[in-house]
Automatic annotation (TrEMBL):
Protein name in UniProt: Gibberellin 2-oxidase protein
EC number: 1.14.11.13
EC main group: oxidoreductase
Lineage: superkingdom: Eukaryota
Keywords: Oxidoreductase
Length: 354
């Protein structure tokens, strides 16, 4: 990327016609994290991710009507959920029992939260709750152009853990609804394997699961950057409520495809733990979010996680993965990110592997 392209961006953000005091006032009011100044050196010295963000095919994920679970077509519906988890690792659900009114409410709360001045967000929330960018990034390929607010469900009703701008009642209502849906889907997938569907009720509860509110600000970098770097999820199951802007992409048959947003559907994807628990039957698929030059994107993700001491083990006669705890898995991921700069994942836990 030409140096003068980045120089133009930096100069445009310098507000040369305003006094220093006015500039400082605007900075304090700005809700966007200081991506350009924080990652200025990376942006100047490294090429953008444009070669990784080439135009890809847009597709619609398998769409599953969950109302069929309560009809004579229940068995077919369960098979469709399992097939999508095997072949795609992703699917969409409609008639999921979560009202559009609740989803509109949480979006409104989310917008209000992220519209606060950046200084307020840093001051009012702990580093564990409010996160932005990628502090450890040494290249643009490791940088996520996004900000997020993490809400452990064990804290969702504690007023001391939230800024007063967030409606605790709305967060709690959404958490309860998504938790119920996640347990329903987990039970179906376990049943289709012939496994223990009650495992998730015992091990994945409000003490271990969490919500993440995401915002992807417009990205002015020529060629674009990742809104969220390519990754797999380190949980059992993720449920995503996304807006109409789009940007989610997943790896399918060795190539990236763009997920067409469906306003009436929720997106569900398999995480690493379910891939191991199912002995590789259900696929934890690499996915990413692409930044948008002019539009911001919002999403809410629910992560179904077990307790740290829960053991992940397939009931198959010949397991692909060795038995491990969630704690051990998380520690290995953190060590890999620190040592090699990225998550290695399940390959660390293959039988006979490293």
């Amino acid at each position: 990327m030409a140096m003068d392209s980045f120089q133009t961006i930096f100069e445009a953000s310098a507000l040369p016609h305003q006094t220093a005091q006015a500039h400082e006032t605007l900075k304090k009011m700005d809700s966007n994290p200081p991506f350009m100044s924080t990652y200025k050196q990376l942006l100047k010295t490294q090429p953008s991710c444009s070669h990784d963000l080439a135009s890809v095919e847009e597709c619609e994920l398998p769409l599953i009507d969950l109302s069929l679970l309560y009809t004579e077509n229940a068995s077919r519906c369960k098979r469709e959920i399992a097939a999508a988890s095997q072949n795609w690792g992703f699917f969409q659900v409609v008639n999921h029992g979560i009202s559009s009114e609740l989803l509109h409410r949480i979006r409104s709360e989310q917008v209000k939260l992220f519209r606060q001045p950046f200084e307020n967000k840093c001051k009012d929330f702990s580093a564990d709750a409010y996160r932005w960018g990628t502090p450890t990034a040494t290249s643009l390929h490791q940088l996520s152009w996004s900000e997020a607010y993490h809400i452990p469900l064990c804290q969702s009703t504690d007023p001391s853990k939230h800024n007063t701008i967030i409606s605790i009642l709305t967060i709690e209502e959404l958490a309860v609804s998504l938790s119920s849906l996640a347990h329903l889907l987990g039970g179906v997938l376990a049943e289709e394997l012939g496994g223990d569907g009650a495992y998730f009720e015992r091990n994945c509860n409000r003490e271990t699961c969490y919500l993440r509110l995401n915002r992807y600000p417009p990205c002015p970098v020529p060629g674009g950057l990742f809104g969220l770097v390519p990754h797999t999820d380190s949980d059992f199951l993720t449920i995503l409520c996304q807006d109409e802007v789009g940007g989610l992409q997943l790896m399918k048959d060795g190539r990236w495809i763009t997920v067409k947003p469906n306003p009436s559907a929720l997106v569900v994807n398999i995480g690493d733990l379910f891939q191991a628990w199912s002995n590789g039957m259900y696929k934890s698929v690499e996915h990413r979010v692409i930044s948008n030059e002019s539009q911001e994107r919002f999403s809410v993700a629910y992560f179904m996680c077990p307790s740290y001491d829960s053991m992940i083990e397939s009931e198959a006669e010949k397991g692909i993965y060795r038995r491990f705890s969630f704690r051990e898995y998380r520690q290995q991921v953190q060590e890999d990110v620190k040592m090699v700069g990225y998550k290695v994942g399940l390959s660390r836990f293959l039988v006979g592997g490293a």
